[in-house]
UniProtKB/TrEMBL annotation, chains A, B:
High-level lineage: Bacteria, Bacillati, Actinomycetota, Actinomycetes, Pseudonocardiales
InterPro entries, A to Z: DNA-bd_HTH_TetR-type_CS, Homeodomain-like_sf, HTH-type_TetR-like_transc_reg, HTH_TetR, Repressor_TetR_C, Tet_transcr_reg_TetR-rel_C_sf
Signal sequence extent: none
Protein name: TetR/AcrR family transcriptional regulator C-terminal domain-containing protein
Gene3D superfamilies recorded: Homeodomain-like, Tetracycline Repressor, domain 2
This protein's record includes keyword Transferase: no
UniProt keyword annotations, A-Z: DNA-binding, Transcription, Transcription regulation
Length: 180, 180
DNA sequence: ACCTGAACACCGTTCAAGT
DNA sequence: ACCTGAACACCGTTCAAGT
């Protein structure tokens, strides 16, 4: 049985998107591809590296062409929500391989028109931290609801979009009154 | 060999604080207490519940007496940094048992003087998400550095405190120009 | 009431040996 | 070059049986 790196990444991505991080194991990927677990390590260094390239794929449909921070933040969240546990995976990869989290670079570019490179960096990371924190909470909650360990709170049923944008607008508002 | 719930929580907390989340296993706790793994389940429902009470202990030295959001955010971060992977654990527990994340309530109270309950809630959660996102990244990075899988970036050696406060101030700045 | 022993169903990773 | 077989060192959780 022959396997390619692409097949491994594809299968890992599909497992994550459809069944979440707890279902994404090396052994499960190997099983689905009809191969022994050890075979994967000829194409991929370890699980961390696999997660990094899966995270890159999650962020692939984030439009680098965003013209303003607000819509960049929205697009970032949308990309994360397309995949189960998307925020958690990207969050981990951010520490492991920061350059993979492309929204940071996009936001940095957008803030650079108004702020110096140092402040633009901090500003971009502020937005990224907020988005990852917000989406991580809503996805973690969704996983727990799905597992039946916690029931949907009435406040959740409310308007997550509205709450999300409230925070984004507050941050961008505060940043716009910052000078360099 | 007799074990109490308190001993279990104490040992779990110490393992997390000193060796991080990857070292905090039910089997390790049981081994350290000289008991079989199954014995723990007489005192604790499962690992999730154990993590929840450990998270509560992490937040114990967060002063509920904070008088302004800025120092509350700082105290929140300080409490998280005292324990390895503190942000990750609290992040998970936030979805599982939100009421355990006491800084949210404290911030809510502080914002309530200026904002209505709905906006005060969103404002508190914006700050909480930012703090958790920020600290999660710095702690994840620290774990990877400690494991030797990634080397310290020069930007990290910079001023995390300054970057942190930049974001906090931007958020609070933006929130203060919000009316209800 | 509380614990042991033992199992069930999993993990990530390595590596000699095969083709 | 690439994979198998098999192991190593782990996980969380359950549960009959013992005391």
């Amino acid at each position: 049985m022959k396997v390619t790196r692409t097949q491994i990444v594809d299968r890992a991505y599909d497992l994550l998107r459809d069944h979440g991080l707890s279902s994404l194991s090396m052994r499960r990927v190997a099983l689905d591809l009809g191969v022994q677990p050890g075979a994967l390590y000829y194409h991929v260094a370890n699980k961390q590296e696999l997660l990094a390239v899966v995270a890159a794929r999650v962020l692939e449909d984030f439009p680098a062409s965003a013209t303003d921070p607000r819509s960049a933040a929205e697009a970032f969240r949308t990309a994360l929500l397309r995949v189960r546990d998307g925020a958690e995976v990207v969050s981990f990869v951010q520490a492991y391989r920061p350059e993979i989290v492309t929204p940071t670079a996009t936001l940095h570019r957008l803030f650079s028109t108004r702020l110096g490179p140092r402040h633009a960096d901090w500003a971009a990371r502020t937005v990224v931290h907020y988005v990852l924190g917000f989406v991580a909470e809503e996805q973690n909650r969704a996983e727990l609801v799905h597992a039946g360990v916690v029931e949907e709170a009435p406040s959740d049923a409310g308007k997550p979009d509205e709450a999300f944008l409230f925070g984004v607008d507050a941050i961008l508002n505060g940043l716009s009154s910052t000078r360099t």
